[in-house]
Design brief:
Two copies of one chain form a homodimer. The first copy, chain A, is of the alpha+beta class and 250 residues long. Chain A contains five helices and ten strands. Chains A and B meet through helix 2 and strand 4 of A and helix 2 and strand 4 of B. Chains A, B: One of its GO terms (biological process) is tRNA pseudouridine synthesis.
Chain lengths: 250, 250
C-alpha cells in the first residue's frame, strides 16, 4: 500500500465545489471515479481544501492510498485521460503514509480577481468578479494590511462554519492592478469557511469608499460576521497553491 | 432614420458563430433579438466579421438602422441588459448612413493563443489551444515574416470559400511567449475564410519542427490549401479589433 499526493487544477464553474454531496457533480466525486476506474480499486481521496461551488484551483492537493503497481509519477497522465476537460491533475508523487493534507501545517495562497471597467468583457466573466464602479486600490491595500498577522477572523467567517477556533494567520495580502484586472493575492496558514470571499467583499467596500480602511480594526475586534462586507462572488476566486513545510515525498 | 455602429465583445464558446443560421444560436441572432425588443423595431445588424463557431471577439463591429429616439451612446447599456452574459456591446455611436462595416477599408487584428505546457490548466482551456510539445517561437516568427505583405493567400484559405480574389495584405505578425502562453497577433486588411486559423496551424507545424520556416514561400507559391498546415482549433482565436480609416461618426 502506498500513499499518493496529487496536485489538482480545475475550473469550478460546472461543479458544486470540492466535497462529495449525494447526487451532485463535485471535484472529489470526479477524482474518485476516475482513479477507481484507472486503478481498479475503490479510491477515496482526501482533499486539502474543500473549495466552494464555482471556485477554481490551480493547485489544490489531495491524497489517496493504493496497491497499484503503476509508478506514482505516471498516475497523473493516466488519470487525466479519464477526467472531464475541466479537471486536470498536475502531478502525482508518492508521500509518507502519515501525510494528511489537512493535518500537516501549510501555507495556502488564494487569488481573488476583480474585473474593473465600465462594460464587461465576456471572455473574462467566468474567472473574475465584474465591478463597474471605480475602486481605490491604495485604500484597499491599506485596509488589507490591518488583516495581516495573527487575528481572530470570526467576523470574516460564514456563520455556517463548524470551526471552534477562528484564529488564523495571514502572512501577506498584495493588491495589484494590471490594466482592467485587480488581483488580490492572499497567503495564510489556513482560511475559515468563506473567509477569502468575505475579505474580498470587505476590501471592495473599502475600495468604493463605503468603509474607511481603519474600519478593518473595528470589524476584527467585533467578532461578528454582520460587521464585515458581503461575501464576494465565487467565480472570482482561485486557489493558487498549497505549500507544506516538508514535501513528505518518499 | 439613423445608422448606429456597435463594437461587440463575446465569448464564442456557446455559439455557432456570428452569422444567422436557421434554428441555431448565433451572435447575430442574439443581437437582432435584443435590439428589436429594446427599440420595438425589426432590427437586422450587418456585421464586419462573420466569425466561426467557437471564435471569440473583443471588438467585432456591427451596424443597424433605427428610428428610435434613444440617444446612440445609451443603446449599448440598454441592450446589454437584454443580452446573455456572454455577449456585451462595448459602445454604440451614430455613423454616416453610407458606412458599411464590410465595404469600407479596415485593419483587422486577431490574436491566436496557444497554451504550451506539459499538462493543461482547465481555466485556460476555453480561450486557448493547448499544445503539450515544445514549440520554437523564434522559428515561428521567422516563418510568419514570410507571410507579411501582399500575397495570394489561396493556400491559407478553406476550400469552402466563396471569395474570388484571394489576395490580401498582412501588415504584421508578432509572436510572443509570456510564461506558458504563446500569443500570435496578426493584423491585415482582411482575412479569408479560416485564414487566421490555417496560418496558426501552419506556424504550429513550423514551431514543432515539422516544416522549416522557408516552407512558407513554397506554400504561398503553390496556391493549394493542401500545402499548408491544419486549421487550428477555433477556441484559440479572438478578434481583437477592427480599425476604419475614418471613424464616420456623425
Amino acid at each position: 500500500m502506498k500513499r499518493i499526493k496529487l496536485v489538482v487544477a480545475y475550473d469550478g464553474t460546472n461543479y458544486c465545489g470540492w466535497q462529495l454531496q449525494p447526487g451532485m457533480p463535485t471535484i472529489e466525486l470526479m477524482l474518485n471515479n476516475a482513479l477507481s476506474e484507472l486503478l481498479k480499486e475503490d479510491i477515496n481521496v482526501i482533499g486539502a481544501s474543500r473549495t466552494d461551488s464555482g471556485v477554481h484551483a490551480l493547485g489544490n492537493v489531495a491524497v489517496f492510498d493504493t496497491n497499484s503497481a503503476i509508478p506514482a509519477e505516471k498516475i497523473c497522465f493516466a488519470v487525466n485521460q479519464r477526467l472531464p476537460e475541466d479537471i486536470r491533475v498536475q502531478s502525482s508523487v508518492e508521500v509518507e503514509p502519515f501525510f494528511h493534507p489537512r493535518r500537516v501545517k501549510s501555507k495556502k495562497t488564494y487569488e481573488y480577481r476583480i474585473y474593473n471597467r465600465k462594460i464587461e468583457i465576456p471572455t473574462q466573466r467566468l474567472y473574475s468578479n465584474f465591478i463597474y464602479y471605480d475602486l481605490d486600490i491604495a485604500k484597499m491595500q491599506e485596509a488589507a494590511n490591518y488583516l495581516v498577522g495573527e487575528h481572530d477572523f470570526k467576523s470574516f467567517c460564514s456563520v455556517k462554519t463548524q470551526a471552534l477556533d477562528t484564529v488564523r494567520t495571514i502572512y501577506r495580502i498584495d493588491i495589484n492592478r494590471i490594466e482592467d484586472m485587480i488581483y488580490i493575492k492572499i497567503t495564510g496558514n489556513g482560511f475559515l469557511y468563506n473567509m477569502v470571499r468575505i475579505i474580498a467583499g470587505t476590501l471592495i467596500e473599502v475600495g468604493r469608499g463605503a468603509y474607511p480602511p481603519e474600519k478593518i480594526i473595528e470589524i476584527l475586534k467585533g467578532s461578528d460576521r454582520n460587521l464585515a462586507g458581503p461575501t464576494a462572488l465565487a467565480r472570482g476566486l482561485t486557489l493558487i497553491s498549497i505549500e507544506y513545510e516538508n514535501d513528505y515525498s518518499f
